[in-house]
Amino acid sequence: AAATTCEWNDYKINIIDTPGHVDFTAEVERSLRVLDGGVVVFDSVAGVQPQSETVWRQADRYKVPRICFVNKMDRVGANFQRTVDMIADRFNANPVPIQLPVGQESSFTGVVDLLEEKALIFSDSGETAPEERPIPAEMQEETRSYRNRLVEKIAETDDVLMAKYLDEEGISIDELRQALRRATINNDIVPVLCGTALKNKGIHPLLDAIGSYLPSPMDVPEMKGIHPKTGEEVSRAPSDESSFSALAFKVMTDPHVGRLVYLRVYSGQVKSGSPVYNSSKGQRERMGRLLYMSANKREE
Question: What is the pTM of this model?
Answer without folding.
Answer: 0.90
